[in-house]
Amino acid sequence: MLLAAAAAGSPGDTAVQEQEAAAKSPLHNWELDLFAGYGQLAWPALDSTNTRWSNGNVAFAVGVAYRSPHFTHPFVDISYVPFIWSGQDVYVPNTNGSVYAKSSSHALGIIFGPGFDIAWFRVRGGVGLYAVSTSTTVQDVNKSTTSANIGYLVTASALVWQRDQFAAGIEGRFMTLQAPGNGTFQSSWAAGLTGRWDFARH
Amino acid sequence: MNSNRTLTAAAFAALAMSCVERQGPQPPTFPSGGLLARSTPLPQPQMLSVLEGIYDTTNRFGTFAVVHASMQGSSATTMKAALAILGRDHLAFAILEPGCFTDSSSGTPTVQLVLEGYWRYLENAEPDSSSTGLIRLFVQPSSVATALCAGQAPPPGTAAALAGATGQGNAEPTAPLQVTYVQQRKGRAGSFFVGAHHGGCVTSDDCGISENTPETFVLASRLGANYLEVDVHLTADGIPVCFHTTNLSATLVQGPYCFGAIAGYTYAQLVANCRLKNGEIIPRLEDALAFGLTNTDLIVWLDMKTADAVLPTTQLLGTLATRLPAANVMSRVVMGLPASDVLNAYVSAQQSGQLAPGQRCLVEQRAEDVTAIPCIAWSPRYTRGPMASDVLNLQSQGKFVGYWTLNDPGVVDAFLLDGKPNGVLTNYLGLVNQRWEAIGILPAYGAPP
Amino acid sequence: MNGRVFIGAVSLVTGALATASAEQPSEQVSTSRDETPVVRAAPDASLAAAPGGGFIFFPTGPQEGQQRWAVGGVWQVAPMFTANFRRGLGSGFTLDARATSIFVYNQLGAGATWAVPVGPFHLGLMAHVDAWFGVLGRAFSDSETSGFDSSGWGILTEPGAMAGLQLTNDSWITLVAELYLQPYQSQKLGSLVVTPGTPFYSGGRASLVVEYSVGKGAIYYGLSVYNTTQNFPIWFNVNYSTAKFLYLGLLGGYEF
Q1: CA-CA 20 to 30 A from A66: which of A37, B57, B259, B417?
Q2: Cβ–Cβ of A93/B236 closer than 8 Å?
Q3: How is residue A5 annotated by DSSP?
Q4: Cis peptide upstream of residue B173 (ω within 30 degrees of 0)
Q5: C-alpha dist (Å) from residue B306 to B244, B267, B274, B303, B343
Q6: Where in chain B is the domain with CATH 3.20.20.190?
Q7: pLDDT in tens, B212-257
Q8: Calculated CA dihedral for residues A79, A83, A87, A89, nearest 10 degrees
């Protein structure tokens, strides 16, 4: 929802052009959003003392939002969140020396919340569920587990290119998992490209 | 060989702890070790118990505080004594260690018995400078200090006092503190016991030691516990470990790969991916018991969280009993049955002769199961109320009855007076010890040995 | 120390501030989407035009003789149903009543609000008294198995303040701050009644709530941040400690 009054920061547009654009733009839009980029564990840091290597991974998300005359728009976002994958040397009691552990962690999340547009900037915040999957191989024995956690997501994007029903730009994302009781215990950041398609308008 | 395994486990734990960033705050310590660094240990550490009693304090711990002496260590050479001051107000406690040195600063050499350590208000879940700090006390009069530092009993009829100061945070103690003897502690006649819930301190109280660890046995003993409740889960490769929740909860563990059900991990994977909040590894029950039973005199209640842990645990206890004959494993470790599936697994093992010889049990739910199985103890949840008549009935049959978990002073008082139990499991050992001394009533019947 | 980050509150506050700063009267050179000018000069007039007059959360409530109902939910430690009622008394006063329930915990309260417009804002003061009752164990299951045979009850008083701002012609945003003062609480554990020395000051909350009119009614949604003692709202966690912990809450519902 482009608030014509928020003229600050609009690149190259005059107030008159904004008025015309606002007057022509549809009142109700269903949009499909896509994100692709790179992400990794933000907090807590992996113990680096005995870590041989560690990396983040690709991050992507797909979402649907409904824009209306209301100043916020509800969205649902489904995302693949990479945390980290790494190789570490660990000391296990009753073994000889250290053992090598290769592990990875990522999450699949579904988030609901309100989004807010100012000109071509957009911020969103939401809450939902993340299914966190971890996989670890120690002493040739692999173990994978998935657990559900409540989590939060905040995104900030700049849709620098817009034409008709399409827009594209850059986006930064930050998600965090809620610890039981209070606070948060793990978080991940991602940055990349985002695209929007208004697939239904009236 | 067997003691080497215990030492190795402890060494690995220490090594693992040193590699991982601690998440929990540590109690304050004196810079350069304080006066204890230039002191010698008591030649007869068990004699510190002459200082036990009820004392009034001029600040921090209130009146009618309990001074509790304890010893921890696996042999005569490693035995260390500690003194605790346990109060009701602020859920305050202090843990101090003794040391003897000769003070020549006044010209005349004087033997001093110094006690140094830290104090803490547990009503503040997160310690800061207003809720923890250093404490230094000197034993008075000098005749008592001299006698104890010579390994001898003090002159009879001499009431000891403690004088010194407390500080805030890591600051040098400067706020004066007088601890004055009032009376001796009440006898418990082997009938009343204070239990530590998961450990001397639960993890969320940030005492620097995580619950369900070998180290917490020592902390619990220092804070006046008589028994310790630890939780038992089973790993994917059938190893009993000490951990409370079914899933690796973020309130207890750290590590970006530490998620999901503990039963899904082999022990090696658990150690590779998870640390407790204060950096410790999740201990095997075997290592925790071997350390705790040889370093303290605590009784242990194993809270069996899953039915499939019953058989491996009873087999482990039988093995430990053979390996550590001096520890009296079978008489000191009781298997708790918190739910019907665990109880059924225990009864089934009992009927098929698979329980270790001398295995003892505790029931949490139905009182009638205590006599039916039979078990030696009943420990119902406090939210069922005192159930005084049921308590008395079981006590008259020679059973131990204790409540879990009482953490509020008013509730502790009400249950002590109404139920007259043999035991109270608590997060606040100092509180329950102090309330027992103030208002506790011995049960009409003694607890089983 | 644990990285306590409340993302939703940050995003909503950011959004609200951005909107408030964007919609300065001097910048109103064009219109919003549906060509209806944003009414800034006479906020009371636009509120009066809103269906039913006034809302549940916005400081200025229904006009004298008019009333609003709302049903919804709140999720803080656990999800709970909520119901609200507000009736205008005139001269800026309204009578409020509210109910919260998750069956094992039930709370009913009443109070009043007084509000006055100050520039583009509406400011309000409120006070409520609530009674709560909860039960665990015998009422729902076998106490031997559940480990519960307990009930609790208490009185809460909640003074608070609000500040509201009309954002667009159909949406209003309100910031609410409320203290929880607990003069009395008791639990019955089996046959024993205890009145623990729970702290009188049990903490408080701050909420950011958006209400927007939809037809004759309104939808509301918002975010709350609570900082309360451990036995509020988990009443059976009998604990006299003054230590407080921080947690989020989400609320939403429909006003009609």
Answers
A1: A37
A2: no
A3: T
A4: no
A5: 11, 16, 21, 9, 10
A6: 193-439
A7: 999 999 999 999 999 999 999 999 999 999 999 998 988 889 888 8
A8: -140
Q: Which residues of B137-173 are buried (b: 16+ CB within 10 A; e: fewer)?
A: bbbbeeebbbbbbeeeebeeeeebbbebbbbbeeeeb
The C-alpha atoms of residue C61 and residue C95 are separated, in whole angstroms, by 9
| Residue B251 near chain C (CB below 8 Å) | no
Q: Sign of dihedral through CA atoms B346, B351, B352, B356?
A: positive
Q: Do B268 and A99 touch (CB under 8 A)?
A: yes
Largest Cα–Cα separation, chain C: 71
* A105, two tokens: 């962690």
Under CATH, what is the fold of the domain A26-201?
A: Porin (2.40.160)
The whole-angstrom distance between residue C28's C-alpha and the CA centroid of its chain comes to 32
- The gap between the terminal CA atoms of chain C, to the nearest Å, is 43
Q: Which sequence spans correspond to the domains of chain A?
A: 26-201
- Cα separation, C36 vs B335, in Å, equals 73
> CB burial class (10 A; 0-12, 13-18, 19+) of residue B267?
buried
Contacts 24+ apart (CB under 8 A), C14-20: C14/A116, C14/A123, C15/A71, C15/A72, C15/A114, C15/A116, C15/A123, C15/A125, C16/C165, C16/C167, C16/C173, C16/C208, C18/A6, C18/A116, C18/A118, C18/A123, C19/A3, C19/A71, C19/A116, C19/A118, C19/C167, C19/C173, C20/C165, C20/C167
User: Nearest-CA neighbor of B230 among B252, B247, B211, B246?
Assistant: B211
Helices (H), B20-172: 142-149
- Asked if C189's CB is within 8 angstroms of B382's CB, the reply is yes
Q: For A143, name the nearest residue in chain B, comparing CA atoms only.
A: B265
The pair of three-digit structure tokens given for residue B412, joined into one six-digit string? 């502790």
What band does B342 get if pLDDT is binned at 50, 70 and 90? Answer: very high
- The Cα C35–Cα A73 span in angstroms is 19
| pLDDT tens digits along A51-93 | 888 889 999 999 999 998 888 999 999 999 999 999 988 877 7
Q: Are A157 and A164 in contact (CB under 8 A)?
A: no
Q: Is the peptide bond before B127 cis (omega within 30 degrees of 0)?
A: no
Q: What is the mean pLDDT of residues B87-112?
A: 92
What CA–CA distances, in Å, run from A68 to A28, B417, B448, C22? 5, 65, 73, 18
Contact indicator for B212, B231 with CB cutoff of 8 Å: yes
CB distance B127 to B100 below 8 Å: no
CB atoms closer than 10 angstroms to residue C25: 10
CA-to-CA distance for A4 and C166, rounded, in angstroms?
17
* Structure tokens, C14: 């950011």
C199 contact residues in B (CB cutoff 8 A):
none
**Domains, chain C, ranges and CATH?**
7-23+39-255 (2.40.160.40)
Q: Calculate how close chain C gets to B143, using CA atoms only, in Å.
A: 41
Which residue in B has a C-alpha nearest to residue A89's C-alpha?
B272
Each residue's pLDDT tens digit, B106-117: 888 899 999 999
Which residue is listed with tokens 């009913």? C108
Which two three-digit tokens encode residue B359?
A: 């295995």
- Which neighbouring-strand residues pair with C161? C125, C177
Residues A17-48: b if buried by 16+ CB within 10 A, e if exposed: ebeeebeeeeeebebebebbbebbbbebebbe
Provide the percentage of residues in chain B whose pLDDT is more than 90: 78
Test mutation, B205, B257, B276, chain A, max A CBs within 10 A: B257
